[in-house]
Amino acid sequence: MLSWYLESGKENDVIISTRVRIARNIKGFPYKLKQSKEDEKALLSKIKEITPQIGYGLKFLELKDIDDLTKMTLVEKHLISPEFAMDDKRQTAILLNDEENICIMINEEDHIRLQVFSSGLAIEEAKNLAIEIENKIGKLLPYDYSEKYGFITSCPTNFGTGMRISIMAQLTALDKTGNIRKVLEVVQNLGMNIRGIYGEGSKTSANIYQISNKQTLGISEEQLAKNIKQITEKIIEQERLARKLLGKNELELEDKVYRAYGILKYCRKISSSECEKILADVKLGTDFGILNELNDAKIKKMQLYTKPANLQKFIGKKQDAYERDISRANVIKQIIDE
Amino acid sequence: MLSWYLESGKENDVIISTRVRIARNIKGFPYKLKQSKEDEKALLSKIKEITPQIGYGLKFLELKDIDDLTKMTLVEKHLISPEFAMDDKRQTAILLNDEENICIMINEEDHIRLQVFSSGLAIEEAKNLAIEIENKIGKLLPYDYSEKYGFITSCPTNFGTGMRISIMAQLTALDKTGNIRKVLEVVQNLGMNIRGIYGEGSKTSANIYQISNKQTLGISEEQLAKNIKQITEKIIEQERLARKLLGKNELELEDKVYRAYGILKYCRKISSSECEKILADVKLGTDFGILNELNDAKIKKMQLYTKPANLQKFIGKKQDAYERDISRANVIKQIIDE
Fold first, then answer.
1. Cβ pair B267:A258 closer than 8 A
2. Going from the N-terminus, what domains does chain B have, and what CATH number goes with each?
3. Nearest CB to B326: which of A251, A262, A263?
4. Would you tell me which of A7, A173, B173, B256 could form a disulfide with B242, CB atoms 3.0–4.6 Å apart?
5. What is the DSSP string of A222-289?
6. What is the pLDDT of residues B173-183, one digit of tens each?
């Protein structure tokens, strides 16, 4: 079954992914700061018990039962945070389905951190699925709720709907033309957060921005989804316009993109950080419609399986950094030739 | 007709080219330092007159009649020196055949600087051809000769045979292993010169060394050729041995070579100096027998037609540096696809 991460979503020339996250706490269970070991265990037991009733092919997995390499693959896929993966003091778990588009963290900051992922732009779909699952769990285990503050969360910034919608966007042309500054300003004035995401292995920005809502209180889920969709569509429009302008100096871009492709195709070893940079360059090529030798799905696959932990999972054995650099080049060649 | 420069000669994994040069001065004509304009002209007229009798398809060309771009192509092919090409104060000429393996400079340091070139290792052949031509000219115009000093030249270091044999060798592995130091020492102790040649556009050494004789006096042409052949064969043997040892870490080399090939194949523009470096890297690949996508003849062709003047000749028009960078990438692609 294809992981959501490998699918090619809507507007994928600009939008990498959509994530909807809902934070909830279960009535009658102490919150993180007051949880004893027994409280943590009690919550896990309860969640484990109801997992089959939730459905969606979700499987209950305690983090202590997941080996380190697999945990790192989940971090690399952005399904769980590094802190959550590393925390060996608390009793934690996840509910995960095979497509990995639903990942619910248990005993993170809140009792329940429900996440729905989608490739490309899919705010409505992700939001609806998240709410559907939230309802289902809520019927099995009632949430803490206040008339005044809505759903209660560990951190008051999540009070209300407890919902955060995040969009990952590749804003290469806006970044390059400098127009990104205007976009950042406008988006922030509209009550949204937007911030640059830096590559994992490198200090250089991959021109990736995360757009998400600040507000969770006093706004309905419907309205929130509508607002963030409107803003995102505006940004997509602006980015595409900027790309058209940049396209006038197409040769420079073509040279950059095709050199990256040449290295990708012919290297015999490649480090994680160089690979990340090179993949960002070839992605420019498919996004701008000037590289025909690859497509978005292949690039997504390369982006995933060249990350250290996922690479080792993919080839089925543990390797040191030097061996990985060689395997990485082989996996890339394999995906190109598919 | 194929220029000698583009042919693939013997031992071409190590030896780039062989050049035999003979310096002569014509009896009864003043030497460079004492030549008046009229003397220069008189010599040119005389040489022009006898050119058809020399044969070998040689054409008499006054340098003032050659356009600058063509002059630069001759410099890039190492047929004439930059100083000779640039000297617009003296009346100078060359005798050149279509294959360009014979190039005789008139009114350079000596009246006659006869050069015979060959790709790869061809000391005997080049020496015999040079002597044959030297004899032919000497019968038409007697040379200055002394019983004590042999043939008289402008600079006393060329007295005697006036013959210099130069071998261009690619000593990558000896350079890399550091064993080159021992080779340099041995060669110099045997009375030969050996020096590193640096790339034209770059500060980095391309691991190319020129081996040539110091002595011209008191040694016959036969003995000289024999000596330099022996030394060169020893160097070839040492270089091949060093390559075998280096080959143990083949992956590093393969990575370097194939990355260079990837850039060569996919770049959309490339500068002269980067191109020189990249071509040296792919040449490693064919020399070491690890790059199958190219061969020596194609690399030679790329090396020639990516040089600024030859590039413009090849595409048939003058271009500025930026345009040339684009044309260079196109010409490379064309040669790869041939």
1. yes
2. 4-242 (3.30.590.10), 250-336 (no CATH)
3. A251
4. B173
5. HHHHHHHHHHHHHHHHHHHHHHHHHGGGHHHHHHHHHHHHHHHHH-S---HHHHHHHHHHHHHHHHTT
6. 898 888 888 99
